[in-house]
Amino acid sequence: MAEIIDGKKISAQIRGSIKEETARFIAETGVTPGLAVILVGSDPASQIYVRNKKKACEEVGFKSFEYLMPESTTEEELKELVNKLNHTSEVHGILCQLPLPKHISEKAVIESISPMKDVDAFHPANVGRIMTGDYNFLPCTPAGIMELIKSTGVEIAGKKCVVVGRSNIVGKPMAMLLLHANGTVTMCHSKTADLKKECLEADILVVATGKAKMIKADMVKPGAVVIDVGMDRDENGKLCGDVDFDEVSKVAGYITPVPGGVGPMTIAMLMRNTYTAAKIAASR
Ligand code: L37
After folding, report:
1. Which of 28, 46, 109, 234 could be cross-linked to 240 through a Cys-Cys bond (beta carbons 3.0 to 4.6 Å apart)?
2. In DSSP terms, which residues pair with 161 in a beta bridge?
3. SS3 assignment, position 188
4. Catalytic residue among 97, 172, 242, 244
5. Any catalytic annotation for residue 97?
6. For the whole model, what pTM was predicted?
7. Strand (E) or helix (H) holding 136
8. Which CDD domains does the UniProt entry name for this protein (predicted)?
9. Ligand 1 centre distance from Cα of residue 32 (Å)
10. Is 167 annotated as a binding residue?
11. Which residues have any ligand 1 atom within 6 Å of their CB?
12. Active site residue 84
């Protein structure tokens, strides 16, 4: 039976140390880290994530600024808000929760965020810095996954790492972080010829496809570290991941649950990035 990687617990520990550091930082500088979270429309999953992010801010002692905008918001209006926040000194981090409504260009909005306040690390300037390894911010979900892997004690260097899914917010940066940690990285996607064969070779398997329970026990190498980024619904409408947890946990060495795995880590890393942004702003 696999050991369950407790993302909820690890996230709480990290948020605890950020809370202590923040109290010291505020005492020394008089600056309170501030995060602006923008949500456009009423996607129910996004509403939950944004609520969790706001709660985490309050818990660690940050200011949070919430902007709930109607589905009908125009791209111009959204960019105007971002521009105002770019110039607001109490706001150190700006997060615009994706996905955005179809009539708004995500690319245009991301590019309107000041790279210094881009705590999601989605701006092309920050994406480029991740490629070269010279960065202030890492994207929250891949950064959180690195912490989860670290918690197992399994060394990444020299290991075969397989990332399933090639999105800009998870798969691609994830592969880059594993590469920086000296893993031998394979990226798989919908056109991969033999997904089962690739996955079976993985010592570390990260799955971010959005397809409920697609990774089965016969696709996982015994003892592997399995990280499940999925936030899916099963046939009964219950929250589940991209990995068939009940089956795969019989084969894997370590596995993350959904919920309580990667999700809470995404939020802990957002707090870390916001604190970093405030520290950089205060030192200039
Ligand atoms: N930074 N993250 C950032 N920017 C975005 O634009 N979409 C997006 C993003 N993704 C995101 O917020 N993901 C996310 C996923 C799960 C949680 C939080 C954030 C989370 O809190 N998950 C809980 C359970 C939530 C639930 O009950 O539905 C968990 O335990 O996994």
Report:
1. 234
2. 185, 204
3. strand
4. 97
5. yes
6. 0.97
7. none
8. NAD_bind_m-THF_DH_Cyclohyd
9. 24
10. yes
11. 48-49, 52, 95, 97-98, 120, 140, 231, 239, 258-260, 263-264, 266-267, 270
12. no
29 C-alpha vs ligand 1 centroid, how far in Å?
31
Alpha helix positions (H), the chain: 7-29, 44-60, 75-86, 106-112, 124-132, 140-152, 171-180, 195-200, 245-248, 262-282
The residue type found at 6 is: D
| Ligand 1 atom with least separation from CA of 266 | 19
Token pair for residue 143?
């950064």
